[in-house]
Design goal:
seven-stranded antiparallel β-sheet, single chain, 16% strand, 1969 residues, alpha+beta, seven-stranded mixed β-sheet
Length: 1969
């Protein structure tokens, strides 16, 4: 004892049952001075000190330890001292085994969390370095693989203990580990999930944290962050789960606290321009921020926080629009808090300006927002009833709206962050729980109750893992263990969450409509007052208490039920869903209403979950997640409550240590064995440390022997029944040794690997050296060899040179001798030649003289003989005909003409060749054309003359070969002639694209002859060929062989030339021209059109025939048959020929409602055709010919085509061409285009017989989508540009996409593109298989293998090639009708119905036929009978656009049948049945099928969705517009709507009144009007018509908006008048009605895009006007007038004059958004208490005002005179009088007096009553007639009175009544002390009660005294004045409430204007009704 009391000794001093760590001071005077470590000084007499008073301090407590489980002093004081010592040293972390205790330093510690610290702790295991949160994080990370399960970290502590900062540090370390993980693939490392997770913390802090009394950055929500790791250790995803955001903090804060950080950061960090746009000011001006008195805090930097939030939002991919919308929501919430109320007939908004700002920011209607805040709307018996709220209730509604906005925004932020960090979950995860700490404020409310409940659950989890499970495990394994007492909070949790616990009672009371906070408190007291953990205060009201594990907490029960219910009225929710701000709409889109259909089930109302029940369920879910993970605990401790650094309050810390069970934790960790492993797992992990050759079967013994080597005393380990139990110190030592062994083994492995690598490297180097040696040696010896070769060559060169020189000298000598000899011989020969020539000349002269003499002698003899012959012939000459003379003359003349023409042709050809080279390029084409036309003309003329000449010649009998040739020609009709003899065909389109076969040589053309050898075609080429053929037949004679035989050379060449000279002389120029332009050059005769700058087509040339292209493939037999026009073929071939060439198709589409294609045509993907197909011969009737068709059975549809559909795409297109006709016309030709691979071929028709041209798409320069012309494409090639136009925008878009893909595709991609197979759009005919009644084989002997398809209205004959194919077709087309299935589908409903059919004659009566109807999941079918074999007469395919008209009672009254109308795509079925239940059953079943169908989506909708998804990518959007003409402006009419519109006609009333047809037709008509509006000067009538149509037909509104967006997109002339007319129409539409939400987004995107493209233009101003109008447009009852439209066209306001009920008038400016009140005609309703004469005078003045001076025009009393009042007065007078008969007698005129008396005195009572009614009716008619006459008389006296004067007189009479200006309503008093029949007068100042007919009121109530007015029940109006309640019964409750609210709003505005001393504009000062 004395040793421990020495000076300076460290001891424990027991003071008030607590141990204080003290240092012994002086011991003088017998007193011992003790100084506590916490600053307290104690002094005791030495004699009084005992061992119980003073205890020695263990050395571990003196020095301090890093792990408190090794403390020698095991009590609370030792733990507290250890924490204090380490805190003073700057060590804020301390271990308790694996549990980490963290003390908040309230200051930054330099270097504690840097990168160096992360690198240090990631290299060491837990326990090797000082305690740190990084060590815990590293252990948690490593346990993912060590324990093979998910991990979780639970951070607990009070508010302000540092839980949020610990969470961020854990995330920081795990992210760093993820980024430095080894072995992770590049795809995992590039996810940037770590950055997004870290950057999400500033967002969550700003929106979820706030300053509280205990913490400057307190988390006001709980969050559980899960990080999903990959096998390689990389973070690949995450998720944030939030718990119980404190919504109440948005609207209320306790003194000294702040709202959420984001509000202050927004006000401090936003720029001035943004601040102005958001109407923001200083924080002190907002009620939601200034009510606590704390706006700023020196420890919080709001500007820096705003900057961090903005950076984080960009990292998490928040768009600019989303950030702007979030700021709008926050600003609108702040402004909502400044909305104030006053009492005036209930709560009324007094700060209208603030309300307008808030409504604009939130995209709400200001009036609707005001109504929702001040009134409660409810539905009673189908009628909406509104009741005013008190000021307190209105404030609650405002706060409820603000809390809902912020709460939904916070939930959206969580989902946005989760979307960004979402990833794979295929491995383990690490969860971090950062949930609100235990809270105990001065006033604890519902939020603190839930927060402390959550902490109780977490404490239970901690106790379960640290104490309960630990001790249970020791007992189960038989470990010697001393039980430790610990604080169990199970009973406290039972009090809260068990049956009839606190939560159950709160939820139960919340569901009672009349439950209050007081009734709840009473139930709590009565149920749990006896519970130890429940506290009932003795004094304070409204409180109850709970003894939590952390201490006793008193809760204020006020507001418990309201917050638990989380009341959010349906009218507020509906208003938010109508917000113009898409962000607000998206927040509340999925929020369910309390009275929605989802809350009803099985006839009972499903109870809506309360806040506490939802929180309880989420906590249980969290506990379930944590129970499957390995936990790590971090206990955060708050050193003081002042949030000051370097201050350690032992009382505060000790309290936290006690309720957290820290001492018990230390005991458990000290005495327990936290590390447990199964024997096999233990040996498997540490087998490298076990000494010995192998393991025995007894693993327990092996483990014991192994652990003995480490700790023989067994203090740090024990063996259980199945597990090894270790302390953490021993486990750390084992892990260290294991790592050392693994390191040694790794070194050995590394050595072997390095040796292997070194050997491999040496071997590689050695092989390289050998290769180098080999190559060097080869190089050396090769060089030596080359040097020797060069030497030998040099020696050979010199030796051979010497030999050559000697030989050269010898040859020179020989040549010289030879020349001398040759010269001598030549001289001798010349001399001899001269001599011979001289002799020859002499001989010739002599011979000439001799010949002349002989000729003279011969002539003399011939002359003499001729004279003799002439004398003899003179006698015969008289007898001969003179015909021969003209014949010879004609022959001579024709020969001369032929020679002349030949010379002219040669001359022209020569001129062309001589002068072509000097003619410029611009005129060469024109001269070419003229010359060629002249040559053509001359050739034709020469041909004609030659033909005539040849016909005159008589060659006598032809030889046999020529006759055989003629017979063969006449029988076959064709002959192949060589190309050199045939002129080119004018029909050829060889210039358009590529030849069909570029590699094949040109084949011979066809000359088609008939039986007589003459030509059938007028084609020039055939004519020339025909002429040349005739010439050959006559000139060549027998030289022409039969076809196919070679020509035999039977004559000499000279003879052949002589025989062929005539043909060659006539056709030489033609043949030369043909050769010059034939296949060698590849060009036709006409090489260029007249206008080289425009496109042309050879098909426009005059005289075009039907010949095919000269470059086509050689024709086979079938193709020749197709080209032949001969008539000598057999009958079968002839019929086939006519079938193939016929242009008149008799194939028709079956009249069915089957839809084959929706939207654009798509290319079928697949390796093969998913259908059966083959060629069949078909005919549709007895008189129709057989045709060969390609038939397909696909998707239950039988289709037939002219040719096989195997191409990437095929269809009809229009191609622009040109020609060389005399008029040079240009036109568009319809051609059948087929795209096969990269070749685009076009034919004359879809039979694909006559190829007109081919285009190589791969070689084309580009594929251009023409913007100026819709549906148009350009294909640009090297030679020309092809202009192509499709029939619809969908076709154009499809062709453009396919051609673009082919143009840019590689060869591999081209092979992968699949053919478009069997597109029904290209089919000649289609037939639904369901309509086929029977398919059977035919027994026709002429055509075997034929079968017949029989339907209800036609018979189709088919013929196949083989019997197998025939039977296969029959089996496929036969579909048996079973009982339970129809077309393979289960039927839903079936039965007999009557179907309306159209009558052949024009009869008005209804004609029906009884049919058997079957409804399946796809269609509505009907049959002739219910038998299986009954024929299907029709089918109606059901899709989402079909509609069903419910039974109409009027039709039942007219016909006796209940009707159902089913509208399909093509047809509408009108069905009838006798029973209403049957009709409703069919209607509901059909509607169910329609509702189950997937909504049909048009291409426009798909493209709008694509644009919305890529709205931020400008290039993608522009490419979408370029590639899809359907989105751009067009001048062509629209063939179908842009959006899907329901089938069927509009309602009958609209059809009869306004002549509307179906919605599709009306959409097309409107588009035509849009095109018409571009050309008119005055668009107002068209605009008003379109607005009226859209007003009547609401489904057309989105369609018209889309049409307008289309027509204002990519307009060729944006500033044209027509385009401005479109924008004017859109302006009017935006002020009249709004589109749906999706189209509204597309419209806003279009407006923004237009404003960016045309800034400062008129279009920009219209777009801005439309954007503003869309924010203010409300529902209208009528379309704008022409005056309003005129104002809208100029974007101006209108001026109108308003006459008020209270007298006077004024002019105000209004616009399309100004609401007008309802106008009540009080006078006509009889609400004007005046005598009869006055009422008649008023009626006369009204007539004068309306019609002017008196005239005989038709007018009625109903519009000017209170007729009902007169009727009521007569009836009342008869009831109030004594005897009815006497009353009537006095009232009736004289001529009815006797009749009345007799009728009323006699007869039965029933008869008398009937007669009384008749007489009463006659009396009323007479009184009305008298009144009409009196009014007419008074009208005549107003002659000359002007309209203005009549109105002044009228108003002066009305103003005489004191109640003028009031609106009177007929009411009946139920309670209030008034008579039964009353008038309720509502004026601008008060509400008055009149007795009906009295001019003076019974009582008047000012609005200031009206506390409440509304409708507690239907048709009941309640008004409360002060404390007096009055009830009136009326059917005009809604009208009364509306007009009273309007007057009250005016009063509020006036008061606000006086208060603010500002002028009020005309909109606010005038109330217009």
């Amino acid at each position: 004892m004395d040793a421990s009391l020495r000076q300076g000794a460290r001891v424990w001093l027991r003071e008030q049952d607590q141990l204080q760590p003290c240092t012994v001071g002086s011991c003088a005077d017998g007193n011992v001075l003790f100084t506590s470590d916490y600053g307290t000084v104690f002094q005791y007499p030495k004699a009084s000190l005992s061992r119980e008073k003073v205890l020695p301090m263990h050395q571990t407590s003196i020095d301090g330890v890093e792990d408190m489980s090794v403390l020698g002093d095991l009590h609370e004081a030792a733990i507290l001292l250890n924490l204090h010592q380490r805190y003073q040293q700057g060590n804020i972390y301390t271990n308790i085994g694996s549990i980490l205790a963290s003390v908040n330093p309230y200051k930054p510690i330099p270097g504690l969390y840097g990168v160096d610290a992360i690198d240090l702790y990631r290299q060491h295991r837990l326990g090797e370095l000082p305690p740190h949160i990084f060590a815990t994080a590293n252990e948690c990370y490593c346990c993912l693989w060590k324990r093979h399960d998910s991990q979780c970290v639970l951070i607990s502590g009070e508010s302000g203990a540092g839980k949020t900062e610990s969470t961020k540090l854990l995330l920081k370390y795990l992210s760093a580990m993820s980024q430095t993980s080894l072995g992770a693939p590049a795809s995992e490392k590039s996810t940037h999930v770590e950055e997004a997770i870290l950057e999400s913390s500033p967002i969550l802090e700003a929106f979820g944290n706030a300053k509280t009394v205990y913490n400057n950055n307190s988390s006001r929500f709980g969050k559980f962050i899960q990080l999903h790791f990959s096998q390689h250790g990389h973070i690949q995803g995450g998720r944030v789960t939030d718990y119980l955001l404190e919504k109440n903090r948005v609207v209320h804060q306790n003194p000294g606290e702040r709202n959420y950080h984001i509000f202050y950061a927004l006000l401090a960090g936003v720029s001035g321009e943004q601040k102005e746009s958001l109407s923001l000011s200083e924080p002190e001006t907002y009620r939601y921020l200034n009510q606590s008195g704390c706006v700023t805090d020196e420890n919080l930097n709001d500007v820096e926080m705003f900057s961090k939030v903005m950076t984080a939002m960009k990292v998490v991919d928040f768009s600019t629009e989303e950030i702007r919308d979030i700021f709008k929501l926050l600003s609108g919430t702040l402004h909502l808090g400044n909305v104030e109320f006053m009492t005036a007939g209930g709560a009324q908004v007094t700060t209208k300006a603030v309300l307008n700002i808030a409504s604009d920011l939130l995209g709400l209607d200001a009036f609707q927002l005001s109504e929702v805040l001040t009134q409660r709307s409810m539905i009673l018996r189908g009628e909406e009833i509104s009741s005013p709220l008190t000021v307190e209730q209105a404030a609650d509604s405002r706060d409820s709206l603000s809390m809902a906005l912020y709460s939904q925004c916070f939930s959206w932020l969580i989902s946005k962050i989760n979307t960004k960090i979402k990833g794979k979950e295929n491995f383990k995860s690490v969860g971090i729980l950062d949930i609100f700490g235990f809270e105990n404020f001065q006033v604890n409310r519902f939020e603190q109750f839930n927060i402390n409940y959550a902490n109780e659950k977490l404490q239970e989890y901690f106790n379960k893992h640290i104490f309960s499970l630990e001790q249970l495990e020791y007992n189960r394994e038989g470990i010697s263990w001393e039980a430790i007492d610990w604080m169990d909070n199970a009973e406290c949790l039972d009090l809260i969450e068990k049956k009839l616990g606190l939560l159950a009672l709160v939820n139960e009371e919340s569901r009672f409509p009349k439950g209050t906070d007081n009734t709840l408190l009473e139930k709590l007291h009565s149920q749990h007052m006896s519970n130890h953990y429940y506290v009932k205060p003795r004094v304070t009201d409204h409180q109850f208490g709970i003894r939590h594990y952390a201490g006793e907490v008193l809760y204020d029960v006020r507001g418990f039920l309201e917050k638990n219910r989380d009341t959010f009225r349906d009218d507020i929710l509906n208003m938010l869903k109508d917000s113009r701000l898409d962000f607000i709409y998206d927040l509340f889109e999925r929020v369910c209403s309390r009275c929605s259909e989802e809350t009803l089930k099985m006839g009972t109302q499903r109870r809506r979950p309360t806040v506490s029940s939802q929180f309880r369920d989420s906590l249980h879910s969290l506990m379930a997640t944590l129970s499957t993970s390995n936990p790590f605990f971090i206990r955060c401790i708050k050193p003081n409550t002042e949030k000051a650094p370097h201050l350690f309050n032992p009382d505060v810390v000790l309290n936290q240590l006690r309720y957290s069970g820290m001492l018990e934790t230390v005991k458990v960790r000290r005495a327990g064995f936290p590390i447990r492993r199964l024997f096999q797992d233990f040996l498997s992990r540490y087998k490298m440390l076990v000494k010995g050759p192998s393991f025995s079967d007894n693993s327990k013994a092996v483990c014991a022997g192994f652990l003995q080597t480490y700790d023989s005393s067994k203090k740090e380990w024990q063996l259980g029944k199945t597990k090894v139990f270790l302390k953490e110190a021993l486990e750390q030592k084992l892990e260290k040794d294991r790592e050392e062994e693994l390191r040694k083994a790794a070194i050995v492995i590394r050595a072997h690997v390095l040796g292997y690598m070194a050997r491999k490297k040496y071997q590689k180097v050695l092989a390289s050296v050998v290769i180098i040696q080999k190559n060097y040696r080869a190089y050396f010896w090769k060089k030596s060899l080359l040097r020797l070769k060069a030497s030998a060559i040099t020696l050979q060169k010199h030796w051979r040179g010497r030999l050559a020189r000697s030989l050269h000298q010898h040859l020179l000598q020989q040549e010289l001798r030879r020349r001398q000899e040759a010269e001598e011989r030549r001289r001798q020969e010349e001399e001899e030649q001269i001599r011979r020539e001289e002799e020859e000349r002499q001989w010739q002269e002599e011979e000439e003289r001799r010949r002349k003499r002989e000729e003279e002698e011969v002539k003399e003899r011939e002359k003499e003989q001729l004279n003799a012959l002439l004398q003899v012939a003179q006698v015969e000459a008289v007898k001969t005909e003179e015909v021969d003379i003209p014949l010879q003359e004609e022959e001579r003349r024709q020969m001369e003409e032929i020679l002349r023409l030949e010379k002219e042709i040669e001359k022209l050809q020569q001129q062309k060749e001589d002068h072509m080279s000097i003619i410029c390029e611009n005129t060469r084409n024109e001269i070419n054309r003229q010359r060629e036309e002249e040559i053509q003309r001359l050739e034709k003329e020469a041909s004609r003359v030659a033909q005539e000449f040849l016909e005159l010649l008589d060659f006598g009998n032809l030889d046999e070969s020529v006759q055989n040739l003629e017979r063969s020609l006449s029988s076959e009709g064709t002959l192949n002639i060589d190309c050199s003899l045939v002129a080119p065909l004018a029909e050829e389109e060889v210039d358009e694209g590529f030849h069909a076969d570029d590699d094949g040589r040109p084949t011979s053309s066809l000359v088609v002859l008939n039986q007589h050898g003459t030509r059938n075609s007028d084609n020039y080429s055939e004519e020339v060929a025909d002429t040349s053929l005739s010439l050959l037949q006559r000139e060549v004679g027998g030289l022409v062989p039969a076809p196919g035989q070679p020509v035999e050379r039977t004559t000499s060449p000279k003879e052949q030339r002589a025989l062929s000279e005539p043909a060659e002389s006539i056709y030489s120029t033609v043949t030369d021209k043909q050769r010059s332009n034939s296949g060698e050059v590849g060009e036709p005769i006409y090489t260029s059109p007249p206008d080289v700058e425009s496109d042309y087509d050879h098909e426009e040339f005059d005289g075009c025939g039907d010949a095919g292209s000269a470059s086509a493939e050689p024709l086979n037999g079938e193709e020749r048959l197709r080209h032949s026009h001969g008539t000598s073929l057999d009958s079968n071939r002839g019929s086939l020929d006519s079938f193939l060439d016929s242009e008149e198709e008799v194939d028709v589409y079956i009249d069915t409602d089957e839809e084959f294609c929706n939207g654009r045509v798509t290319i079928f993907n697949g390796s093969g055709p998913p259908y059966f197909h083959s060629y069949l011969y078909m005919k549709g009737g007895l008189m129709n010919p057989w045709r060969r068709r390609w038939c397909v059975l696909k998707n239950e549809a039988f289709m037939w085509f002219r040719t096989k559909q195997e191409a990437l795409k095929s269809g009809w297109l229009y191609k622009k061409g040109g020609g060389m006709s005399t008029l040079s016309r240009r036109n568009w030709k319809r051609r059948w285009f087929v795209l096969r691979e990269s070749k685009l071929m076009y034919f004359e028709n879809d039979s694909e017989e006559k190829l007109k041209g081919t285009i190589d798409i791969r070689r084309a320069k580009e594929i251009v989508d023409i913007h100026e012309k819709e549906n148009a494409l350009d294909i640009v090639t090297e030679d020309r540009v092809y202009h192509i136009v499709a029939e619809s925008p969908e076709d154009a878009s499809g062709w453009f996409n396919v051609l673009s893909r082919v143009h840019s595709a590689t060869a591999q991609q081209l092979r992968e593109m699949q053919d478009e197979q069997a597109n029904p759009k290209n089919a000649v005919g289609t037939l639904d298989v369901g309509l086929i009644d029977n398919v059977c084989a035919s027994d026709s002997p002429d055509r075997p293998n034929s079968f017949v398809i029989i339907t209800a209205n036609r018979v189709i004959h088919c013929n196949s090639d083989t019997p197998e194919e025939m039977h296969h077709w029959i089996s496929l087309l036969q579909k048996p009708k079973g009982e339970s299935k129809v077309d393979g589908q289960e039927f839903l409903v079936r039965g007999w119905l009557h179907k309306e059919v159209q009558s052949s004659n024009k009869m008005s009566s209804l004609k029906m036929k009884k049919r058997w109807f079957v409804l399946t999941n796809t269609a509505l079918d009907y049959y002739k009978s219910s038998e299986r074999t009954a024929a299907k007469l029709g089918t109606l395919v059901l899709n989402s656009l079909c509609s069903v008209v419910q039974p109409d009672e009027r039709v039942f009254k007219d016909t006796g049948y209940w009707n159902i109308i089913v509208h399909g795509r093509k047809h509408s079925y009108r069905l009838y049945t006798k029973l209403l239940n049957e009709a409703m059953r069919w209607a509901s079943a059909i509607q169910g099928v329609i509702d189950s169908k997937v909504p049909i989506e048009t291409p426009t909708q798909q493209l709008i969705r694509d644009i919305r998804e890529n709205s931020t990518n400008f290039e993608v959007v522009e490419q979408t517009y370029r590639r899809n003409p359907i989105l751009r402006y067009t001048q062509h009419p629209l063939h179908s709507p842009l959006l899907p519109l329901p089938y069927g006609d509009v309602s009958v009333n609209l059809q009869q009144e306004k002549g509307y047809s179906s919605l599709q037709d009306e959409a097309v008509k409107i588009f035509n009007s849009l095109q018409e509006i571009e050309t008119v000067s005055d668009p107002i009538p068209i605009i008003q018509g379109i607005l009226q149509t859209c007003h009547d037909l609401k489904p057309l509104r989105d369609e018209v908006y889309c049409q307008l967006i289309k027509q204002t997109n990519h307009m060729p002339h944006p500033n044209s008048t027509g385009n401005l007319h479109h924008w004017q129409l859109m302006s009017c539409m935006s002020c009249t009605f709004l589109p749906s939400r999706g189209i509204l987004r597309y419209l806003k995107f279009h407006l923004r895009r237009v404003k960016d493209l045309f800034p400062g233009s008129e279009i920009d101003r219209y777009a801005q006007f439309i954007s503003d109008s869309l924010k203010r447009t409300k529902t209208r009852e009528f379309v704008p007038s022409q005056e309003e439209i005129q104002a809208l066209l100029t974007r101006e306001e209108m001026t109108t004059t308003v006459y008020c009920h209270g007298g006077g008038s004024c002019k105000i400016t209004i616009n399309s958004h100004t609401s007008a009140g309802e106008a009540h005609e009080s006078l006509i309703d009889g609400h004007f208490p005046a005598p009869e004469d006055t009422l008649q005078r008023l009626a006369a003045l009204r007539l004068q005002y309306l019609h002017g001076d008196y005239s005989k025009i038709s007018w009625t009393l109903d519009g000017i005179y209170p007729v009902n009042r007169l009727k009521s007065k007569i009836l009342h007078s008869t009831k109030s009088s004594g005897t009815t008969s006497h009353t009537l007698e006095r009232r009736r005129t004289s001529f009815l007096e006797g009749t009345l008396k007799r009728s009323f005195k006699t007869g039965s009572v029933k008869k008398q009553k009937v007669e009384e009614e008749q007489m009463m009716e006659m009396w009323v008619k007479e009184e009305l007639s008298a009144a009409r006459a009196s009014i007419a008389q008074k009208w005549t006296k107003l002659q000359g009175l002007s309209q203005h004067q009549a109105m002044v007189k009228y108003m002066s009479i009305v103003k005489e009544w004191p109640g003028y200006g009031s609106t009177l309503f007929d009411v009946e008093c139920k309670e209030g002390g008034f008579p039964n029949d009353l008038w309720l007068g509502v004026s601008t100042e008060n509400v008055s009660v009149y007795k009906r007919g009295d001019p003076k009121p019974l009582e008047t109530f000012q609005y200031e005294h009206i506390v409440f007015f509304g409708a507690p029940q239907p048709n009941t109006f309640k008004i409360t004045v002060d404390e007096r309640e009055m009830f009136f019964e009326t059917s005009q409750v809604g009208e009364i409430i509306k007009i009273m609210k309007a007057y009250i709003n005016m009063i509020v505005k006036k008061r606000c204007s006086v208060k603010s001393a500002t002028s009020v504009d005309s909109h606010a000062s005038i109330w217009t009704r």
